[in-house]
Design a protein that fits this description.
143 residues, alpha+beta, eight-stranded antiparallel sheet, two-stranded antiparallel ribbon, 10 strands, 30% helix, signal, META domain-containing protein, HslJ-like_sf, Hsp_HslJ-like
Length: 143
Amino acid sequence: MKKLILLLAISCMAFVSCNSAKNDNTNTTMLQGEWELNYISGPRIAFQGLYPDEKPTVNFDLKTDLVSGNTGCNRFSGKLDVVGNKINFKNDNMALTKRYCSGEGESVYLSTLQKIDSYSISEDGKTLSFIMGEVEMMRFVKK
């Protein structure tokens, strides 16, 4: 009887563990592709004033574990650091092009990105939110 209970307990733990990993993987899979910024928290300048020519983007390539994008002026790329819904852009190996950018848009985008510690994706898969603590700091739409 003890062996049966032990076997049942191990089976339940394995099932819950596999199901939990599946849920994290499904959410991570939804990151794949290019997203365009449509909201950023903090600046006193209107969104259109920050990014008059080109909206920032972020692109996730899950096959190569890379993240890249555009700051509204320069391009960036680096290794993707994501586990479940936790994400980290504080990677020292992030590369950034260095052309001249007028305005504050790029610095606002990059400094806000450094604060992000998690993300969420809407049920329809069309909206990506970058979160600091419990506050939505950036919102993107799927391109």
